[in-house]
């Protein structure tokens, strides 16, 4: 499903980034990093909107020939970025949303861990396996 | 479509397309009305109510009025809408019934029949009434007008199908009115026709669409049908609706492609899967690309053709709708999806063809948008177009790489063939852009034509894209394009141009902590720097890469080897050093001092252990590791002493360095932790605290501008510190991972040493850590030799041997053999020399070093202690016994001194509540070998005893009692108490004491008593010397004989002169005294001796060899047992003759019953006023402070005696001292008066009548 999932800290450094092993990892790093431009743009545009009405899902950030990059931002400005293969046309917006929601829930679990230091890289196995499930899930 | 299209071919600009309205009947009439009609029709909007719940719309109607022909009417099955006549109007001006009947009616019938034949129901008959004509024609039937006739003949139920237009060319209100009515009717009819016909068309279309699953269904046919609808909406200027039609077609096609991908292929789709032969990009400059449309119609279009055509139509409509930015956005989506669709449909595309198509399309879209917007609009909407720009850049880049235009050598023959093929696919340039200089077609053709042209175009595009990204704040995207550019430059072998882009990108990635991009960019940068020959930068990047865990092991080794091979190479200038930051080479983990408190004395050895983690993948041989040390002399001397430092440095000597968390965002990385310290500022004069506070020592680091931190990758410009103080460690091989390094140093100058800069030397390469953080310091101190002498116990006791501890702190002085302490002996203090005196030598850390025998040599003036040889900064400890002699040897000279000290000491005792021991200080001056000055040490000894004496009398027999009070904590054994009067030999002192030694416990007293006996007349004063041997009770045998404790005192006037006897006799006739009844007190004072030396004073009066003295007696009852009645005192003249007796009779009354002691009888000497003493006294003091003066007087008198009698004098003197001059009273010393009735008691019986007893005694 997703070919790359990234969690990016408020300060824009990666907390977690994983891509499917078959592809060049570096490419996705560049892609996710570049997509932060659009995330920033969308967040600053959203900043004017009321906080409680704010939509966490940012939608399609950065379409490329081969991939679609979607974004999601938590209230604490932690960003989730998901890269999806463009050929995967069956994937609808709603599914992307629900995937993000799943990701957010799992991230919240990570944050709830008293042994996790906010700002550290995420090394939780539960989070990792959840991401794995999102990546291998075939539609 | 065939025949009917010929007069009105659909190749028309759709904006000029208007719904067709046919006109039949009087053509001349219509021609005359047409200008007004075409002008008036669109003037007012009309509400168009729509079917299927679509929102009603206000619409301005326009029409294309054409002459009615039967051919215009669509045949059965023809679905063309554009050419569909929506309304048929018959125009007539006929006002003559005859004419009507003759021609018009026939004409109308024919027209109606044609319409009916084509089942067209949208028609209208317009009768134009003309007043002018009416006047000419007189035979008008007023009853039935032509209108009525027509209505009657043709509009059998729809009378409104016939409209009258009155005087259309006149300017009157009636004309206006009829025009309005007509136009409304016309519009309504048109809209009704639209609704009806379009509704029917849509239904047909839907039916057609529903058949799409049927085998013969063709998308192209359906496309044409729905596009017809779109055309009509466009014709009606309903662009939104038109766009919807195209979007539906778009979605339908997309869905088919998706289904195809999922394996559900439709037959018709295979037509589209033909290999792509033409890739000439989108054509957006024409409203309708008829070529493509024809291809679609003929089912010969490829996917690209269909997409191009669809998008060109959508683009046109969006531009009509003033939504150019949506065009840009949709274009990007389209281009992406087209590429995907071609992949999905497995359409064979020659390599590069798609890139050409995308490139051309991007530029076409951009130019199209630019063509319809002004500059300001474009600039403010860069966000929408920038995607197309970078996409075009990307595509041009890949074309360049594909065709060998990026290589140094230029394209080879294979590349050239490819270029030719690609250019062929573009076809010829389209006529509409042929004259445009910068058309996409020309650009591409030019770019592919030569290496130089490609470079120019690629650079133009890249720079434009970077600029746009930057201008809207998309720095990351700009960096990415920049990196591509850098790659391009590297290919073109111009690394100097690439460097800036790589540096920029790297800075960005570093700032945000993206490890993989950092590594990748660094690798590129390393290559670039290598080409540029930036040795220093290259080595730094190499070291960073060699320590990077994201790099493969081989690559790391390669980069490490690069550094090492550079280091081993001989450089031309041997002094040249390459300074690199340490953090990419190795990291410090911890530091450990030995000794752990990091305090060392001058000359001592300090070792520093550092754990350094090498980041290199292979072992690295390092010539030297040096730590520069900053030396500062502490101003505060006290800080340098060992005691202070050991007290204040409590750390275990391990300093941990914070581990650098590798790729960390800039915000955390740049700011070092606060280094806060307490600050105390003391005034230089008295060391009192002036100010205190907290200071931040690294404020300069925290407050500096952030930009200066940006130079992470460039050599940090660290200056190598040169200094006199360096800790070194030579020839070390640093294994990957943790290494322990040991630095040893011998402390030289005292002061504080701060470890500052760490430098690792590998050949000419220096890895430098500019500042060790946290602060690492060690202290070197120098200490003067010191001698300390202190008692072992709380206080030293005089008289017995006491242990005193000597501590020699050698400090910087080395004690040699033969060094000795010379103690000049104090006179009253002995230093006891034992054979076994051991000295212990301790090292600086209180570890016992050795144990030596101490040699003490004593002469009468000097005691010399030979110190054992001890190195510097050691301590020699030994104990000596000293003895303070409690009193000096009995010699004449000494006794006087002691006699003087005694009262002084007594005075001290009385002041100090009697509990403190008297002390004596002994000063010993010691000559130390390290100093020319003598050290004077005062030892304070406390006397363990306090001694008092008293004289006791029994008639004429005399006793001396000595009380020895032990004040110390020790128990003592007292023996051989002895009292002698060395002055008078005829006096005998008979001891009444036990012979055995007396044990006196702490805080207890022992009494000694002697009886005085004399043969001849005793001397007036007795000089006694008491001595007693003493030894601590706990200790067994003492090594030396102790001097006895001595006490000297004088006893004066001890001989009894008067005997006072008192007797109380009951009243006569009674056996016992009774309370309340007067008794007689008989006092007899008897002189016991003749004239003696002591009597010779002023009171003595002589007459005829007969001596008498004046005495005053006084009866006082202090316990208020008795009431003295009458005179209680009196002066008597006493003859100085033995056995001379004076009797006094007094009346006293007992106040209580029981055995009552007798009242006191006191005797005073009554001295006449002309004495020498009185003249000395001040008259005022007599009056005011009489009692005090008497006291003083008595004190003067009894100065040398220990006996004091006070108090009783008061009453006597107070009664006598009125008036001047007056006689004085002097108490007789108690030794001279013996009260023989002391202790006698008289039985007093209570009186029978108790109630009488009411005596108040004040």
UniProtKB/TrEMBL annotation, chain A:
Gene Ontology BP terms: endoplasmic reticulum to Golgi vesicle-mediated transport
Pfam families associated with the record: Sedlin_N
CDD domains reported for this sequence: TRAPPC2L
Main location: cytoplasm
This protein's UniProt keywords: Cytoplasm, Endoplasmic reticulum, ER-Golgi transport, Golgi apparatus, Transport
Location(s) in or outside the cell: Cytoplasm, Perinuclear region; Endoplasmic reticulum; Golgi apparatus
A single GO cellular-component term on record: perinuclear region of cytoplasm
SUPFAM superfamilies (alphabetical): SNARE-like (SSF64356)
Cross-referenced Gene3D superfamilies: 3.30.450.70
Cross-referenced PANTHER family: TRAFFICKING PROTEIN PARTICLE COMPLEX SUBUNIT 2 (PTHR12403)
Family: Belongs to the TRAPP small subunits family. Sedlin subfamily.
Protein's recorded name: Trafficking protein particle complex subunit 2-like protein
Source organism per UniProt: Odobenus rosmarus divergens (Pacific walrus)
UniProtKB/TrEMBL annotation, chain B:
UniProt record, GO biological process: early endosome to Golgi transport; intra-Golgi vesicle-mediated transport
Subcellular location: Golgi apparatus
UniProt superkingdom: Eukaryota
Domain TRAPPC10 Ig-like residue range list: 788-884
Keyword list, A-Z: Golgi apparatus, Transport
Residues annotated as domain Trafficking protein particle complex subunit: 456-546
Protein name: Trafficking protein particle complex subunit 10 isoform X1
Primary gene name: TRAPPC10
């Amino acid at each position: 499903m997703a070919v790359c999932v990234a969690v990016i800290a408020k300060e824009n450094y990666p907390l977690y980034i994983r891509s499917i092993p078959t592809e060049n990892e570096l490419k996705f790093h560049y892609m996710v990093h570049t997509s932060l431009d659009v995330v920033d743009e969308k967040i600053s545009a959203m900043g004017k909107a009321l906080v409680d009405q704010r939509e966490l899902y940012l939608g399609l950030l950065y379409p490329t020939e081969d991939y679609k990059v979607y974004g999601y931002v938590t209230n604490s400005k932690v960003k989730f970025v998901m890269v999806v293969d463009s050929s995967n046309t069956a994937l609808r917006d709603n599914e992307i949303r629900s995937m993000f929601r799943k990701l957010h829930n799992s991230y919240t679990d990570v944050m709830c861990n008293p042994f996790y230091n906010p700002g550290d890289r995420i090394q939780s196995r539960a989070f990792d396996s959840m991401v794995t499930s999102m990546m291998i899930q075939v539609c | 479509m065939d025949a009917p299209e010929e007069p009105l071919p659909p190749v028309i600009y759709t904006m000029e397309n208007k719904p067709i309205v046919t006109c039949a009947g009087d053509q001349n009439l219509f021609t005359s009305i047409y200008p007004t009609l075409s002008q008036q029709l669109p003037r007012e909007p009309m509400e168009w109510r729509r079917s299927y719940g679509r929102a009603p719309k206000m619409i301005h109607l326009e029409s294309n009025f054409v002459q009615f022909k039967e051919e215009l009417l669509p045949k059965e099955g023809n679905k063309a809408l554009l050419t569909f006549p929506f309304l048929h109007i018959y125009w007539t001006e006929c006002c003559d019934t005859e004419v009507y009947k003759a021609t018009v009616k026939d004409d109308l019938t024919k027209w109606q029949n044609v319409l009916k034949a084509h089942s067209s129901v949208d028609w209208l008959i317009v009768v134009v009434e003309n007043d002018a004509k009416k006047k000419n024609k007189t035979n008008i039937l007023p009853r039935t007008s032509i209108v009525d006739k027509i209505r009657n003949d043709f509009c059998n139920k729809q009378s409104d199908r016939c409209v009258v237009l009155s005087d259309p060319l006149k300017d009157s209100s009636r004309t206006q009115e009829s025009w309005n009515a007509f136009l409304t009717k016309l519009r309504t009819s048109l809209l009704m026709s639209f609704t009806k016909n379009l509704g029917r068309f849509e239904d047909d279309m839907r039916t057609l669409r529903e058949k799409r699953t049927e085998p013969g269904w063709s998308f192209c046919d359906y496309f044409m049908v729905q596009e017809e609808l779109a055309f009509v909406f466009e014709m009606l200027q309903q662009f939104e609706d038109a766009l919807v039609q195209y979007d539906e077609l778009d979605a339908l096609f997309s869905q088919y492609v998706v289904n195809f991908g999922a394996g559900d292929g439709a037959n018709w789709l295979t037509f589209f899967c033909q290999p792509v032969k033409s890739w000439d990009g989108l054509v957006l400059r024409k409203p309708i690309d008829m070529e493509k449309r024809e291809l679609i119609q003929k089912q010969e279009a490829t996917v690209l053709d269909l997409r191009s055509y669809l998008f060109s139509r959508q683009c046109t409509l969006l531009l009509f709708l003033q939504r150019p930015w949506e065009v840009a956005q949709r274009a990007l989506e389209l281009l992406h999806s087209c590429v995907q669709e071609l992949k999905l449909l497995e359409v064979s595309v020659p390599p590069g063809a798609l890139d050409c198509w995308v490139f051309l399309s991007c530029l076409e879209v951009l130019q199209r948008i630019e063509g319809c917007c002004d500059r300001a609009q474009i600039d403010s909407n860069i966000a929408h177009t920038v995607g197309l720009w970078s996409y075009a850049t990307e595509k041009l880049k890949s074309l360049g790489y594909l065709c060998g235009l990026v290589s140094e050598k230029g394209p080879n023959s294979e590349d050239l063939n490819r270029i030719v093929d690609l250019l062929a696919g573009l076809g010829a340039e389209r006529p509409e852009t042929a004259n445009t200089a910068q058309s996409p077609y020309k650009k591409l053709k030019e770019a592919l034509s030569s290496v130089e042209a490609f470079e120019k175009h690629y650079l133009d595009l890249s720079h434009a894209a970077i600029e746009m990204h930057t201008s809207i704040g998309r720095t990351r995207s700009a960096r990415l394009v920049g990196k591509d550019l850098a790659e391009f430059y590297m290919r073109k072998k111009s690394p100097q141009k690439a460097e800036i882009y790589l540096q920029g990108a790297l800075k960005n990635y570093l700032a945000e902590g993206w490890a993989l991009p950092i590594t990748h960019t660094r690798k590129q940068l390393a290559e670039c720097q290598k080409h540029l020959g930036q040795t220093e930068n290259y080595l730094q990047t190499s070291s960073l890469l060699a320590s990077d865990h994201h790099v493969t092991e081989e690559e790391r080794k390669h980069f490490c080897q690069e550094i090492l091979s550079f280091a081993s190479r001989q450089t031309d200038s041997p002094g040249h050093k390459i300074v690199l930051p340490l953090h990419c080479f190795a990291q410090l983990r911890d530091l450990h001092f030995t000794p752990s408190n990091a305090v060392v004395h001058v000359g001592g050895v300090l070792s520093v252990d550092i754990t350094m983690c090498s980041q290199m993948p292979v072992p690295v041989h390092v010539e030297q590791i040096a730590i520069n040390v900053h030396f500062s002399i502490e101003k505060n001397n006290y800080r340098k002493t060992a005691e202070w430092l050991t007290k204040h440095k409590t750390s275990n000597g391990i300093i941990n360095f914070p581990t650098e968390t590798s790729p960390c965002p800039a915000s955390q990385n740049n700011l070092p932790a606060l280094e806060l310290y307490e600050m105390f500022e003391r005034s230089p004069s008295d060391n009192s605290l002036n100010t205190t506070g907290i200071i931040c020592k690294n404020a300069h680091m925290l407050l500096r501008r952030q930009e200066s931190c940006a130079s992470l990758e460039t050599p940090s410009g660290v200056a190598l510190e040169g200094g006199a103080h360096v800790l070194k460690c030579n020839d070390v091989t640093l294994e990957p991972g943790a290494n322990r390094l040991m630095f040893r140093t011998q402390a030289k100058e005292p002061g504080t040493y701060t470890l500052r800069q760490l430098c690792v030397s590998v050949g000419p390469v220096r890895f430098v850590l500019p500042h060790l953080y946290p602060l690492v310091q060690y202290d070197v101190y120098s200490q003067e030799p010191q001698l300390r002498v202190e008692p072992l116990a709380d206080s030293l006791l005089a008289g017995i041997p006491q242990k005193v501890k000597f501590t020699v702190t050698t400090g910087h002085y080395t004690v040699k053999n033969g060094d000795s302490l010379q103690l000049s002996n104090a006179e009253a203090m002995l230093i006891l020399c034992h054979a076994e005196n051991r000295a212990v030598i301790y090292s600086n850390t209180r570890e016992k070093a050795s144990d030596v025998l101490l040699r003490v040599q004593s002469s009468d003036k000097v005691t010399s202690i030979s110190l054992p040889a001890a190195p510097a900064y050691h301590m020699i400890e030994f104990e000596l016994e000293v003895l303070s002699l409690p009193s000096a040897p009995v010699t004449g000279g000494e006794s006087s001194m002691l006699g003087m000290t005694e009262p002084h000491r007594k005075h001290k005792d009385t002041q100090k509540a009697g509990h403190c021991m008297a002390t004596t200080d002994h000063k010993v001056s010691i000559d130390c070998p390290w100093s020319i000055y003598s050290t004077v040490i005062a030892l304070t000894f406390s006397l363990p005893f306090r001694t008092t004496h008293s004289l006791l009398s029994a008639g004429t027999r005399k006793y001396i009692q000595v009380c020895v009070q032990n004040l110390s904590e020790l128990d003592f054994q007292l023996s051989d108490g002895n009292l002698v009067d060395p002055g008078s030999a005829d006096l005998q002192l008979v001891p009444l004491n036990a012979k055995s030694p007396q044990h006196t416990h702490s805080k207890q007293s022992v009494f000694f008593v002697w009886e005085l006996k004399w043969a001849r007349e005793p001397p007036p004063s007795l000089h006694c010397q008491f001595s007693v041997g003493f030894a601590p009770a706990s200790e067994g045998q003492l090594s030396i004989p102790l001097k006895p404790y001595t006490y000297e005192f004088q006893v004066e006037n001890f001989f009894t002169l008067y005997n006072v006897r008192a007797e109380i006799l009951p009243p006569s006739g009674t056996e016992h005294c009774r309370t309340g009844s007067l008794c007689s007190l008989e006092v007899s004072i008897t002189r016991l001796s003749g004239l003696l030396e002591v009597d010779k004073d002023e009171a003595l009066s002589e007459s005829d060899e007969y001596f008498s003295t004046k005495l005053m007696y006084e009866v006082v009852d202090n316990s208020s047992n008795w009431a003295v009645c009458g005179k209680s005192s009196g002066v008597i003249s006493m003859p100085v003759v033995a056995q001379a007796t004076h009797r006094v009779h007094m009346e006293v009354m007992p106040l209580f019953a029981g055995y009552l002691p007798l009242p006191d009888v006191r005797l005073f000497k009554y001295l006449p006023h002309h004495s020498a003493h009185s003249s000395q006294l001040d008259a005022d003091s007599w009056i005011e402070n009489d009692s005090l003066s008497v006291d003083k007087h008595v004190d003067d008198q009894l100065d040398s005696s220990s006996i004091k009698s006070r108090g009783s004098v008061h009453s006597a003197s107070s009664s006598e001292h009125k008036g001047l001059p007056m006689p004085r009273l002097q108490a007789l010393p108690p030794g001279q008066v013996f009260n023989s009735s002391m202790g006698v008691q008289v039985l007093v019986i209570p009186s029978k009548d108790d109630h009488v007893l009411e005596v108040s005694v004040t």
